[in-house]
Amino acid sequence: MSLRERDKAVNWHPYTQMKTAGDAIPIMRGKGVYLFDDDGNKYIDVVSSWWVTLHGHANPYIAQRVFEQMNSLEQVIFAGFTHEPAIQLSENLLKLLPGNQEKVFYSDNGSTAVEVALKMCIQFAHNQGKEKTKILAFKNAYHGDTFGAMSVSERSIWTKPFGKMLFEVIFIDIPNSENLESLQSQIKNISDEIACFIYEPLVQGAAGMLMYDAERLNELMKFCREQGILMIQDEVFTGFGRTGKLFAADYLSESPDIMCFSKGLTGGTMPMGITTCSGKIFNAFLSDDKYKTLFHGHSFTANPLSCTAALASMELLLKDETLENINLICEKHSKFSQTLKQHSNVENVRQTGTILAWDFKTGHETSYFNEIGKRVYEEFLLRGIVMRPLGNVMYLVPPYCITSGELDFIYKNISEVLDIKI
Ligand SMILES: *Cc1c(COP(=O)(O)O)cnc(C)c1O
């Protein structure tokens, strides 16, 4: 049996209607920006394998570091024990974050990083004898697929079967030049009941790469701080260089109470999530009363291999040549967006750092299930490019090791595909 047949027989793929899905393409190996399939075809991975890959596939430096770590310590219980990779990673990461971030809590992925953040905020109130049950989030938010993370995400086709089981969230508009005052009065009325405000800074990724202004977010954050509302900044997608700066936080002068990381954290090599918090949050759990403890953990909390991969990836990220290449991607995207804006099948061209997105004008109703997305995806695959639209939203989120020539190859193919009547 072929790999494709064997896969069909046993595997259930994410976000995939298995009845109608075509065969999954077996990938035999990866190198840099390329993936190689079982038929010898190669593809440029311009979505960074779901926005995680920073330094390319099978990066030899990260592989070497993880291999060495595997030979000395692969895993240890993180209650009662610790290890250097976790200590070093926390030290290195905190140095890059807003000054108020003091402590690092480890988990396994972006959704768990969000769960931990929500629990910190709800118990923060509880530990002070208050029960706060409402949470503030943006319309179109996406924070993950576990129950808490789903609850704070926009209600959609993805969350529909679970609607009754999700907790109470107040969804507000993204701040713009006109609505700030109305948002403020909306929040002010209920600020005592709000456990926290959670948001994706600058870019709402899964909603379709919706982008908004740092200045406006900063004003809203300032208001929340004044109202005593805790803020969770979900940088699971925007972290580690995606926005052109190391973190979206680098565009803001206000600091959140809690931050969430995953995706690019290990350069896309190992699963891991991180929730960082300020001393104010941490201190609210210090007590002689053992019920004030944060009772949360995962079997693989602070896995030494994942920590080592993250250390190696961050080392690569901070190299001059990586930072220069991030700038190159930003500049080339910006130039190409001018070309895109001229195209009659394109609207809402937008860019934040290394993320370039636009809407494919379809002339009829658009949704996540739009056939356009599927046809565009297949057309790009034939051209050796992995581009996975969100409905009719097309976007580029390349690994940082992509070359100028490879970007030009992608841009050229995009221009050609846009000209075809799809
Ligand atoms: C992807 C994503 C998550 C969820 O991360 P997983 O690792 O897929 O669980 C949470 N928040 C944001 C902003 C994301 O983009």
Question: Can you offer a commentary on this structure?
Answer:
There is one protein chain. 36% of the residues lie in helices and 17% in strands. The protein has 422 residues and is an alpha/beta fold. The protein has 2 domains: 3-58 and 320-418, Aspartate Aminotransferase, domain 1 (Alpha-Beta Complex), CATH 3.90.1150.10; 73-317, Aspartate Aminotransferase, domain 2 (3-Layer(aba) Sandwich). The strands form 4 sheets. It has a 7-stranded mixed β-sheet with strand order 4-12-11-10-7-5-6, sandwiched between helices. The chain has a 4-stranded mixed β-sheet with strand order 1-2-3-15. The protein has a 3-stranded antiparallel β-sheet with strand order 13-14-16, with helices on one face. β13 and β14 (355-360) form a beta hairpin. α3 packs antiparallel against α10 (304-317), α7 (180-188) packs parallel to α8 (214-227) and α11 (320-342) runs parallel beside α13. The longest helix has 23 residues, at 320-342. The protein is globular and about 65 Å long. The two termini are 34 Å apart. Residues 109-111, 114, 142-144, 200, 205-206, 234, 236-237, 262-263 line the site of pyridoxal-5'-phosphate (PLP). Pyridoxal-5'-phosphate binds at residues 109-111, 114, 142-144, 200, 205-206, 234, 236-237, 262-263.
